[in-house]
Design goal:
Blueprint (H helix, E strand, L loop, with lengths): L2 H6 L5 H10 L3 H9 L3 E2 L4 H4 L8 E2 L5 E6 L8 H13 L4 E4 L6 H11 L4 E3 L2 H7 L8 H14 L3 E4 L21 H13 L4 H4 L1 H11 L2 E4 L14 H19 L4 E5 L5 H14 L5 E4 L11 H15 L3 E3 L12 H21 L7 H11 L3 H7 L3 H11 L20 H17 L1
Helix pairs in contact: 2-3, 5-6, 5-15, 8-11, 13-14, 14-15, 16-17, 17-18
Length: 435
Amino acid sequence: MTQIERACAGAVTAEMEAVARAEQIDPETVRREVAEGRMVIPANVNHLKQGLNPIGIGTAARTKINANIGKSAVSSDPGCELEKLFTAVRLGSDTVMDLSTGEQIDSVRARIIEAADVPVGTVPIYQVVEQLDDIADMRPKDFLDVVEQQARQGVDYMTIHAALLREHLPLCDGRLTGIVSRGGSLVGKWMAAHGEENPFYTHFDELCEIMREHDVTWSIGDGLRPGSIADASDEAQFAELKVMGQLGRRARELNCQVMIEGPGHVPMDQIEHNIRLQQELCDGAPFYVLGPIVTDIAPGYDHITSAIGAAMAAWYGAAMLCYVTPKEHLGLPNQEDVRQGVIAYKIAAHAADIARHRVGVRDRDDALSKARFEFDWEEQFRLSLDPETARRMHDESLPERDHKKSHYCSMCGPKFCSMKTTEELREMTRGKAEG
């Protein structure tokens, strides 16, 4: 039985108890949220056997982030992807997605699943494409077989673009950037070549049978997400979103857990509407967003342009944020790009959780602020999201060990530190009061 199946039967599983402990909420709350489809616990039964630590994704839990890794056909290697995995998880990524293309996809995925104690996601159509000369050659059975294979390996959640229909394709004709989802464009090409409906839509129930058997969580892909702010919130995007909501309901009827994927590129003034509409059309299912990127003019800095949108999206109710690295739109991320992306998104997720008043989430902020006021540099480093960078930046100007005890930094020096002056002011005030 899947997590949602057992939750609907009134059972609190060991995985639900683990989520409750991590989130500092009642296990019954977790069970209820899973039963209602507002929370998912991506935990393939085969990955659980390999040491997966279950997490909860939903608005009742803290905001999660995902890091995309995976080799391409022209760059990277399996060892490099494992290093990216370790970097992402060490810095706090809650899940990873293996988006590998090219050769050795199976072996790379197997090594990532074995090494990862966090949920692992994939986009199965990538493997199907690598096995064929052209996507137009794909038979529905080819895709079902790959989904089955990956489920047996232990993949915890899969992005499948099942809601993009033939009737949606003409809605993209006037777009500035067309269909930017790799999976979405491949499905569109298949439908155009065959003159038939999306096979993932027509074979949805069969896919659910596979997902249910291994308790793989659906991540219903947004094949028509906007790839530029000019295309945001258009008819094509929202037409697909309606179908995503319908498929989400069908998947839950068949005892499968479901997340809904979201945009993309969205200007700041449209983010709230996007989140609210998804919650309405998809019955509050966890919303998993890419960014969103809020301006298109900053190649090389899209971990920043997207983290702005991600913080807003999470504040309004997105449950998981898919990170964007500085290499977005430019190339395959390396290990440093992964580090930059994870840190940017940990900041975005944490900022949103503070705004949403999550239990205990501000404790670390308050502890770091206390250490800052007390000039406890070592404690400040320890509490930082990225201790290595914080220490390195302090060392650049004040490298000696004695400076880790100083009551100033190189910005203000010994005479202009406001916190040091505040200490002196308090001493003066206390002295006058006592006198």
